[in-house]
Structure to design on (325 residues):
């Protein structure tokens, strides 16, 4: 009797509220969306893991004492915290979505997390092998705000000459024992290379960013013990508007015609060392002439740009070529 009354009451409520069963496609779509979101999170987690592997792979483990007094201190100083947190967030999203699948309730939290972490590591390893970790790091280095503060704090660790670490751009044709380096603050360094160690694959040339280990011997002189290649962070030295110096770490003249170049806003740059370093001037001039059409486009939109070209003290015939239609 009670069951009949309850059944009748339930039927009346259904009729009253005009409730109808949801079609099967609704549940299928929801299920597909959950699986799709989980799969997307797994891919993103794998990409994050590939960057973590890339950063850790080239983390200068062999010279950690140049950066920190102890290995634990070095790890705490250089651990890619952003990417670890980013990965953790997407592993949680994977867990959340899997738990809401049709049979997800059967699996415990530890089991899902372990499977998610292992999957991210395997996928991240694959992405790292095909170069995605490096590619993403370079793209972020070129474009992401606060890259050196959030994504890769290692950049700042290599601009402390008083602690024996210096990085910057080679701006003059290197001699046997000496190069001229310009750091991120547009400061020029006379760098002495006698008895310095090099990687076998390194060929120092104009326009190349390098890292140096050694001793600061005066305000603008640095005695090198070891020259190192750049690993993670290469893209950072190709970005526009490096603060507080112009983007000399691109191909020499390229920052002059970038859409977001500070020259176009009227902000002055420190003078370029063209006359002092002939090889750098040669590369810079060549780059300007190769992009003559873009420079002329800028002049049409901003005639004041001509004065910036004249301030470079370019050879007269080069300046004429840049200005002639």
């Amino acid at each position: 009797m009670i069951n009949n009354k309850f059944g009748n009451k339930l039927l009346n409520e259904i009729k009253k509220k005009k409730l109808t069963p949801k079609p099967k496609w609704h549940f299928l779509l929801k299920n597909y969306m959950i699986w799709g979101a989980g799969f997307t999170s797994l891919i993103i987690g794998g990409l994050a893991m590939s960057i973590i592997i890339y950063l850790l792979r080239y983390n200068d483990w062999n010279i950690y004492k140049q950066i920190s007094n102890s290995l634990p201190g070095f790890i705490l100083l250089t651990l890619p915290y952003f990417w670890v947190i980013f990965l953790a967030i997407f592993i949680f999203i994977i867990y959340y979505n899997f738990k809401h699948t049709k049979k997800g309730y059967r699996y415990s939290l530890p089991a899902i997390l372990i499977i998610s972490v292992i999957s991210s590591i395997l996928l991240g390893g694959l992405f790292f092998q095909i170069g995605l970790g490096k590619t993403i790091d370079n793209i972020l280095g070129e474009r992401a705000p606060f890259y050196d503060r959030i994504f890769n704090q290692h950049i700042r660790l290599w601009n402390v000459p008083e602690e024996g670490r210096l990085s910057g751009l080679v701006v003059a044709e290197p001699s046997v024992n000496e190069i001229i380096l310009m750091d991120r603050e547009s400061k020029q360094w006379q760098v002495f290379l006698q008895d310095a160690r090099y990687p076998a694959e390194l060929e120092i040339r104009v326009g190349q960013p390098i890292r140096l280990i050694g001793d600061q011997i005066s305000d603008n002189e640095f005695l090198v013990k070891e020259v190192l290649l750049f690993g993670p962070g290469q893209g950072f030295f190709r970005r526009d508007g490096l603060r507080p110096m112009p983007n000399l770490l691109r191909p020499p003249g390229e920052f002059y015609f970038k859409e977001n170049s500070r020259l176009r806003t009227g902000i002055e740059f420190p003078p370029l060392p063209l006359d002092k370093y002939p090889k750098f001037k040669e590369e810079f001039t060549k780059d300007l002439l190769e992009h003559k059409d873009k420079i002329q486009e800028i002049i049409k939109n901003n005639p004041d740009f001509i004065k910036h070209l004249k301030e470079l003290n370019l050879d007269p015939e080069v300046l004429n070529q840049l200005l002639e239609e």
About this structure: The beta strands are 165-170, 178-182, 188-192, 209-218, 221-228.
